[in-house]
Specification:
Elements: E1 9-11, E2 15-19, H1 22-29, E3 36-41, H2 42-47, H3 49-53, E4 56-60, H4 69-82, E5 89-94, H5 96-108, E6 114-119, H6 122-128, E7 133-138, E8 141-148, E9 153-156, H7 166-183, H8 185-193, H9 196-201, H10 203-223, H11 238-247, H12 253-270, H13 276-288, H14 299-313, E10 318-324, E11 327-332, H15 335-341
Parallel strand pairs: 2-9, 3-4, 3-5, 5-6, 6-9
Antiparallel strand pairs: 1-2, 7-8, 10-11
Bound molecules: glycine.
The site of glycine has 6 residues, from loops.
Length: 343
């Protein structure tokens, strides 16, 4: 039997979230008897080989282009070859792509195996790995196929972040700031006053930021696990962020979300939802962290990409607008209204 260790957070009443050392926590969280199969990628193998080498492991490729049904199928086949069965525990060690694919494969293979994650990137720790969303992209449409299934545990080990390239580290800060704008004024203030260099140097500060951002997400997911309402707030900056990512290779996810957040804030000012001064604070906080706040893609192109995403999604477009630092509103909006707002 695995030992029980008190987690910092619980999501959906069953997913335990730990901010702490993976090497120490894993032996206490994984099943004491039974097989563990790890899914990871080549970057993690290079940076944290010692952690992977303890387990039987399979590596997938890197980058958003590997988040596909083909990758999932390859893993199903490998599982069959290796004789992975219902008694196997699947552990994803990596960033958002690894945890999304691992969660999807583990929750569908043989109708679902036990699984958990070690999240190794800042983006993964403050957002992707927590909350039970997993899945793959289809024809460039993000997360079109997937499930809501909670990992048994997520370990967010901030010591693993020291080997992240600067750009990858920074991308997670956009999501942490997003959490502050949505529901935590103090977290926003901490990030507003910090520099990327300080956050990379100061482990205690970083741990504080990671913990606060997870708290925002865990609280929201606890109330709305399947995104019927409030969880949509976590998509702040993502309507335009996804469109920017699609139309330009210049920005990675966090960079596109940062520019998308600024667009949402400016739209909120136009609608009279947000004070100009608060919008300025959001822009300054993002540029202080080194983000470009201007979208590299012109509004007309962005609106076309939003329209394509909306068609694929089939639902109403819900735009998230900041109302003040620490609070956001969810507004159903038509494409015509969106075009008018951002023309
Ligand atoms: N990344 C947004 C969510 O998990 O709902």
């Amino acid at each position: 039997m695995e030992q029980s260790i008190e987690p910092q957070f619980t999501v959906g009443g069953r997913s335990r979230i730990y901010v702490g050392g993976a090497a120490e926590l894993l032996p206490r969280l994984l099943p004491a008897a039974g097989r563990v199969v790890v899914i990871s990628d080549a970057n993690i193998d290079r940076r944290h080989h010692g952690l992977l080498a303890r387990y039987e492991h399979l590596l997938i490729g890197t980058g958003e282009t590997v988040k596909t049904l083909q990758t999932a199928e390859t893993l199903y086949r490998r599982f069959i070859e290796l004789g992975v069965d219902r008694s196997t525990f699947v552990l994803g060690i990596g960033g958002g792509i690894v945890t999304d694919v691992t969660g999807f494969v583990a929750s569908t293979y043989m109708r679902g195996l036990r699984f958990g994650f070690v999240s190794t990137t800042l983006l993964g720790q403050v957002d992707a790995s927590v909350g039970g969303k997993n899945g793959v992209n289809v024809d460039g449409y993000k997360n079109m196929v997937g499930t809501f299934s909670q990992p048994e545990f997520v370990v967010c080990d901030t010591t693993l972040l020291s080997t992240l390239p600067l750009r990858e580290f920074r991308t997670g800060l956009a999501e942490a700031l997003k959490a502050g704008i949505i529901a935590d004024t103090a977290l926003f203030g901490r990030l507003e006053r910090s520099s990327v260099e300080e956050l990379r140097r100061n482990r205690a500060l970083l741990e504080e930021i990671v913990t606060a951002a997870i708290r925002v997400k865990a609280d929201i997911v606890e109330r709305d696990e399947r995104e019927g309402g409030e969880r949509r707030k976590l998509n702040l900056g993502h309507t335009f962020g996804h469109a920017i990512e699609k139309c330009s290779s210049k920005m990675n996810h966090g960079e596109a979300v940062a520019a998308g957040t600024v667009l949402a804030a400016r739209g909120a000012v136009k609608l009279g939802l947000l004070e100009e001064e608060a919008c300025g604070r959001i822009e300054r906080a993002l540029s202080g962290l080194g983000f470009q706040t201007q979208s590299p893609v012109e509004p007309r192109k962005l609106l076309k990409a939003v329209e394509r995403d909306k068609k694929a999604d089939g639902g109403t477009l819900h735009m998230i607008f900041p109302e003040r630092i620490g609070s956001c509103a969810i507004r159903p909006i038509s494409l015509a209204e969106l075009a008018e707002l951002f023309k």
